[in-house]
Design a protein that fits this description.
The chain has ten helices and four strands; from the N terminus they run αβαβββαααααααα. The chain is α+β, with helices and mostly antiparallel strands and 215 residues long. It folds into two domains: 81 residues, Glutaredoxin (3-Layer(aba) Sandwich), CATH 3.40.30; 122 residues, Glutathione S-transferase Yfyf (Class Pi), Chain A, domain 2, CATH 1.20.1050. Helix 2 runs parallel beside helix 3, helix 2 packs across helix 7 and helix 4 packs parallel to helix 7. The protein is globular and about 50 Å long.
Amino acid sequence: MLNVLNKKSIMTLFADPICHYSHRTRFVMSEKNASAEIEFIEAKEFPEDLHELNPYGTLPILVDRDLALFNSRIIMEYLDERFPHPPLYPVDPVSRARSRLLIHRIDQDWYTLMDDIINAGEKKVAKAKKLLRENLIAATPLFAANKYFLSDDFTLVDAVLAPLLWRLPMYGIDLPKEAQAVLDYTKLVTSRETFQESMSDAERDLFESHSLMTG
């Protein structure tokens, strides 16, 4: 691990250019205006030397001086503490714990379905799309309750949701008018300048290709 770490004099994020987990860490970095280098690596081409940093062979990986972190949630929380302004977690412990629990549920209930949509076989993909669509429709009142997700301020919860919601049309998941609050929320968070800055060239190409196909 020391050999890899010693090569990096500035904070570096190793990220997949189209992965939703990598995207949310880049979104947080953009929100924090963090001075860092981003190296894009496709997951299927995971370099051998990065296994020294993450034995599980997954992205993203953050290197900051002699520290190496993997798991996007751990990385996002580290960035929030490393760059305290603007804070993306509430200050009081009760609200902070609730935000962490929300992120855990989003990961367990929605991100796992997106994982299946991207990686699973045809039958499982269709089921995952149906479930994700139904879950988001059912959650519409939560999106309508505040300006952001269950908060009047932008938080880490929104940074987690935005990359997932942005990908829905690209994977053929269209929400009905009854879920207008979800659509409005998606537009709100993905139109942030920081979200636009966080997108990789591959993600921009994905968006443009989808726009051309759908007219």
